[in-house]
Design goal:
The structure holds 2 protein chains of 2 kinds. Helices cover 73% and strands 1% of the residues of chain A. Chain A is mainly alpha-helical. In chain A, a hairpin with a 3-residue loop joins β1 and β2. A 7-stranded mixed beta sheet of chain B has the order 9-10-11-2-12-20-13, with helices on both faces. Chain B has a 4-stranded antiparallel beta sheet with strand order 5-6-8-7, with helices on one face. Chain B has a 4-stranded antiparallel beta sheet with strand order 15-19-14-18. In chain B, α9 runs antiparallel to α11 and α14 packs antiparallel against α15. The longest helix of chain B is centred in the first third of the chain and has 20 residues. Chain B has a domain of 221 residues: Dipeptide-binding Protein, Domain 3 (Dipeptide-binding Protein, domain 3, Roll). The two termini of chain B are 29 Å apart. Classes of the chains: A mainly alpha, B alpha+beta. Chains A and B meet through α3, α6, α7, α11 and α12 of A and α1, α7 and α13 of B.
Chain lengths: 335, 572
């Protein structure tokens, strides 16, 4: 198990290297000369002298292989450079954005796990009941509603309506921004903070929660028909123990895979949610960096997202063994 | 609207009923949100400001949260030497005062008045301008403002070569600094003993007093002008001499200003004692979110999304009655063979006459804008009403022009692409234009792009028929004719209009000191642009688009789109 863990951990290195190298080269394949944009050429043709000065200043006049080598030389020491646009350290930008994304991602995933799995299990054990049918409709609708539409509806219902109706402050959620920055253990909101967090977290979680519920339901239905569950019932175990102790654990493998993939997505690609709620996270920062041809920011933030994605997937793989002891992760498994 | 949240536990037996009730309630709310009101208050057009009743009772101080300025992105630049956007200018204008200011109390006749300068004069041919600086002017850190302050600031601005640095070409030796061939502008001489700043221009320019008050020419303290790296200034605390001061560096999320107690007043010496204590500019990534936040009581003002104009008029104070000196129009690239040249003049005329500007104004902006009859709006000295010959909706004439164009052996090779940036609410405007053109047989299609790509493409000469707009920087006719359509502006704000006669008329007008003669020349130039060449299709002139909350008593917006922050005050 340990050897497997170390091997998988080491695999993260080439994964990150190839992903970032691909991005690096792709950047130069994009239309638009970065030096011209840096010289203010987003909406005009800047003076050629100014363009050349920008090219020199940011090292864009060097051969591509040299820029590539220099970038990796610095990145290996976790020096991600400076933003072309603002001149700020990318390490600082990453620190700010990553913590915001992580907080939002953690709560979105918690909602997905708690609500998605619970609803899926309940739906499966009450198959064809009214609540199951309603759940099926609701989850289909939730996966189809565009994020920005849901975001605006939630803003209206939980922020605008309470303001207009004079509801108490605690029922009045916030439409945008990070809030007062009062967190315990970096991700647990305290005081007013939860009023800022709840709407973006719910919005971000909505689609994946619906998918998790549907997947849990399907997976549970399959497991509930399995022979070993009949055996468990025959042994006199209570239905609760049968479902939670045997059924749920075995039904979890595909759901865990989904949640693992979602975690990477909500950290690095929550662009719409971040935009609707002005939550300054990694997704919108990466999108901005692409449109502004801000290579250091693009690479630095993508590096973090790639590492996070690789690590979460590693954890998911490791968790398989816990959920299903038949899966062996080690030397024995390869025999 | 009644609250829909009734609380209480949701039991399994009543789940279905409650879910259904919730769905119905959601649909009703959605319907309510989407409904238009017919009772939108028609505002008059003679307002001088977007504030509430000027006699309203106000209270001193207060903390103002602005949600209307930075919608979409945080400002790229806050440095007066680099900024080109009205958004960031709202902050810069609160932090800095220039040599001159604009008195807009009569919106039809904005007047340039001395501000940090106590007086100024030009020689007879307007080639040498002498500004006498007031000797009591200080920055918020106590540093005195002298003529040398301005000289150092202008040298710095030229060296930084920002997008507005072409204005430095008006001054002798200015362009040499922009191009990196010199470090000081030779045409600027500061005399701190007699507090004068003498500026020699490259050619006569009778409106230089207006330009001298623009942000590019604002004074900066020695901390900025002596810095080794000029670009860092805007990332720290920018010290200024205006009614408000920065107290902490900007972030992408917000910019905080506090009352500057060192400020000695505006051009009238008025210090506006009820001035706000603080202004927090909050960046909102999406315009609808910003408006929702405003409605949810999270801020004191917001930009009104076009679709919610009537609703805003009904529920809040707005600046919709303020005529803005700004034009919303579509430009033809006359270099493009599909629309340019004399052969396509009738085609351009047909397009111009086919567009129903009133329908656009009503359907998209709830009638809140002014249908334009030219490019240069009322309020610019020399303005002439009804200048545009083909801007009136006339589908029969448009059809006839199009048929005549076809009869001459021309035909469309493909649909006319109407290019625009998709993220700023232009889509419905373009859709109406496409329908209008289809009605007379012209095949047209919308070509939306994201803003970054769009303006980058236009700079590269990709305009065929492209949307653009302009807010005046200062009240001069040349700020429209020269900055937008002169050949010097090609590759900058001009996306494809070039006409020698037009250029020479504009050049001559700029150099003319007689105001009436100058106006005549500019009008002749604009007639070439809109009537003879039909290089542009004017659509409307902007109006103010801020809504402000009930607790705000005064919220003035000038004809230049700037909020007069020192006058904004809470209701008593």
């Amino acid at each position: 198990m340990f050897a497997y863990f170390v091997r998988r951990l080491l695999l993260v290195v080439p994964t990150v290297f190839f992903a970032l190298s691909f991005l690096f080269l792709l950047f130069f394949a994009l239309p638009g000369d970065p030096a011209t944009l840096l010289a203010g050429g987003a909406d005009r043709n800047p003076d050629p002298g100014v363009v050349e000065r920008a090219r020199e200043r940011y090292g864009l006049d060097e051969p591509l292989y040299q820029q590539f080598g220099e970038y990796w030389g610095r990145a290996a020491q976790w020096d991600l450079g400076e933003s072309f646009k603002s001149g700020r350290s990318v390490n600082d930008i990453l620190g700010e954005k990553a913590i915001n994304s992580l907080r939002l991602a953690i709560w979105a995933i918690l909602i997905e796990i708690v609500v998605g799995i619970s609803v899926g299990v309940l739906s499966a054990i009450r198959r064809y009941s009214l609540s199951d049918k309603l759940t099926t409709i609701a989850t289909a609708a939730a996966s189809a509603v565009p994020v920005f539409v849901l975001g605006f509806i939630l803003q209206y219902l939980f922020a605008v309506v309470p303001e207009k109706q004079g509801w108490p402050d605690w029922l009045h959620l916030r439409t945008q921004g990070l809030g007062p920055d009062t967190w315990t253990f970096f991700f647990i909101p305290t005081g007013e903070q939860w009023r800022y967090l709840i709407l973006p977290a719910v919005t971000l979680a909505c689609v994946s929660t619906a998918l998790a519920a549907r997947m849990t339901r399907g997976s549970m239905l399959e497991v509930l028909r399995a022979d070993y569950l009949r055996t468990a019932r025959a042994k006199g175990l209570s239905e609760r123990k049968v479902v939670t102790g045997h059924g749920l654990r075995n039904a979890m493998l595909p759901v865990i895979t989904l949640i693992g993939l979602d975690f990477g997505t909500v950290i690095g690609a929550a662009i719409l949610t971040e935009t609707v709620f002005s939550w300054p996270g990694l997704g919108s920062a990466i999108a901005d960096a692409v449109s502004e041809r801000d290579l250091p920011v693009l690479l630095g933030l993508s590096l973090a997202v790639t590492i996070a994605f690789a690590l979460v997937n590693l954890l998911v793989d490791l968790s398989y063994a816990w959920f299903d002891p038949r899966i062996r992760l080690g030397k024995d498994a390869e025999v | 609207m009644q609250p829909i949240h009734k609380g209480g536990p949701v039991t399994r037996k009543t789940l279905a009923g409650r879910v259904l009730a919730l769905l119905v309630a959601l649909m009703l709310i959605a319907a309510a949100c989407g409904s238009d009101s017919d009772s939108g208050d028609e505002s008059g057009s003679d307002g001088t400001s977007g504030g509430d009743d000027a006699a309203a009772e106000t209270q001193a101080g207060g903390d103002f949260i602005d949600l209307g300025t930075f919608v979409g992105d945080p400002p790229e630049h806050l440095d007066p030497a680099l900024n080109t956007t009205l958004d960031a200018y709202q902050v810069i204008n609160a932090v800095y005062d220039g040599l001159t200011d604009i008195d807009t109390s009569d919106p039809a006749n904005p007047v340039i008045v001395p501000d940090v300068a106590e007086s100024y004069e030009a020689n007879d041919d307007a080639t040498v301008w002498t500004f006498t600086i007031r000797d009591d002017q200080v920055f918020s850190n106590g540093e005195q403002i002298t003529p040398s302050t301005f000289k150092a600031s202008w040298d710095r601005a030229a060296q930084m070569a920002g997008d507005y640095s072409y204005l430095m070409s008006f001054i002798e030796g200015g362009i040499e600094v922009v191009e990196g061939d010199a470090e000081e502008i030779s045409g600027v001489v500061a005399n701190d003993d007699d507090m004068t700043l003498e500026v020699t221009l490259t050619e006569p320019y009778s409106n230089f007093d207006a330009v001298a008050g623009f942000q590019l020419f604002f004074p900066l303290p020695s901390e900025a002008t002596d810095a080794a790296d000029f670009t860092e200034w805007e990332n720290g605390i920018m010290i200024g001499n205006g009614p408000f001061a920065m107290t902490e560096p900007r972030t992408d999320e917000e910019i905080l200003l506090e009352k500057n107690d060192e400020w000695d007043g505006d051009y009238n010496g008025e210090t506006w004692p009820d001035r706000l204590d603080t202004i927090k500019f909050v960046t909102t990534a999406d315009p609808d979110t910003a408006y929702n936040s405003f409605e949810a009581g999270e801020g004191n003002d917001a930009n009104i999304p076009p679709a919610r104009t009537a609703e805003a008029q009904e529920n809040y104070g707005t600046t919709l009655d303020v005529p803005i000196l700004g034009s919303y129009h579509f430009q033809f690239n006359l270099e493009d063979p599909s629309v340019g040249g004399d052969d396509n003049l009738l085609f351009r005329q047909a397009v111009d006459q086919a567009i129903d500007r009133d329908e656009i104004n009503e359907a998209v902006y709830s009638g809140s804008r002014t249908t334009s009859t030219g490019i240069t709006p009322e309020g610019i000295p020399g303005f002439q009403a009804d200048l545009c010959e083909f801007c009136t909706y006339d589908p029969e004439a448009a059809q006839a022009a199009f048929e005549e164009w076809e009869a001459a052996g021309n035909s469309q090779d493909g649909p006319l692409t109407i290019q625009f940036n998709r993220d700023a609410g232009h889509e419905p405007v373009v859709q109406i234009m496409v329908d209008n053109l289809a009605a007379i047989g012209i095949d047209a299609e919308a070509d939306p792009m994201d803003s970054e790509t769009y303006f980058s493409e236009l700079a590269d000469g990709a305009c065929v028929f492209c949307r653009t707009g302009w807010f005046a920087d200062y009240p001069t006719y040349d700020n429209f004719m020269y900055d937008l359509f002169h050949s010097d502006a090609l590759g900058g704000n001009n996306y494809g209009f070039s006409n020698e006669e037009f250029d020479s008329l504009v050049d001559e007008a700029k150099q003319t000191t007689d105001k009436d003669e100058q106006a005549d020349l500019f009008v002749q130039a604009e007639e070439i642009l809109v009537n003879e060449e039909i290089g542009v299709v004017p659509i409307n002139w902007y109006r103010g688009d801020y809504a402000y909350s009930d607790d705000i008593a005064v919220f003035p917006q000038t004809n230049f789109g700037l909020i007069v922050w020192e006058q904004v005050a809470f209701a008593a």
